[in-house]
Amino acid sequence: MDLMYFAELAMNGALVGLMYALVALGIVLVFKSSGVANLAQGALAMVGAYVVWWLADPLGAPLWAAVVVGILIMFFFGRAFERLALRRMIGQPVIMVIMLTLGTEILLRGSAPALWGAQMKRMDIGIGQQPIVLGDMLINRAYLAGGVVAVVLIGLAMLFFNSRQGVMLRAVSDDQTASWAVGISVERAIGVSWGLAGIAAACAGILWGSVQGVDWTLSLLLIKALAVAILGGLDSIGGVVIAGVAVGILENVIPGYIDPLVGGGTRDLVASTVILLTMLVRPFGLFGREDIERV
């Protein structure tokens, strides 16, 4: 085995995994505060990327302004979705709420090409294409920048959940009735979590849009994000970092050695296999609480 080849695959895979973790962060934020699996996160990332592209390209706004405004739009988009759709589901079985988020994912995925066209849009955020040479390894510059941004944002999310507001969100997740009794606004707390999920989606969409372009396929990041969130534990913010690195390395290393033998196609199997094995062997994930209910 060529150790340098393996190291290059593993390093780039780890950085990709951190970018997956940023998408998964939105799933964990919503679950951690409301106990609902957010299956619309992939489409939210896609919409965030489209919004920033639309502001920066057709409208001609400066990139920094497009990014800031796009993040704000996605924050309020997440809050509006919770207020107008999810809040109407109060009292309904959890599975119905989950199906609503999945239906939203499908709706947004189908609407994007109709609104902005099916052709892929280029989004340049100033990250060069020249790889970084580290000894005999080539490190993708965009993956490195994306990985650093992901770690910073996930770290900020961990700090937030240790703040007073974050403790309130965790209390709502543990027991909504008790939270009501002590004066916590449950609706507001859940709305904030969806707004934060919108911010995570926007940041992830911008980073991934700069790597692969902006089109409807960005919504397919949902499968990767689910693998990361389930493996790390749906209620563990720190878990998405470890799980993201693990999924990214597996997704890069396995195809690197197996694809030449079988003709390709193994990359798409990794995330689904991780989901399946985790649910069978450790359904609460590596760092999740064992009392999490699965539906």
> How large is the radius of gyration?
19 Å
Q: SSE string, helix = H, strand = E?
A: HHHHEEHHHHHHH
Mean pLDDT level: 88
**Strand arrangement in the largest pleated sheet:** 1-2
Please count the helical segments.
11
Helix content bin? over 70%
Structure commentary:
The chain is an all-alpha fold and 295 residues long. Helices cover 71% and strands 2% of the residues. It contains 11 helices and 2 strands. Strands 1-2 form a two-stranded antiparallel ribbon. Strand 1 and strand 2 form a beta hairpin. It is globular, with a radius of gyration of 19 Å. The mean pLDDT is 88.
Keywords:
295 residues, mainly alpha, ABC transporter involved in vitamin B12 uptake, BtuC, two-stranded antiparallel ribbon, 71% helix, 2% strand
Task: Kindly summarize this structure in a few lines.
71% of the residues lie in helices and 2% in strands.
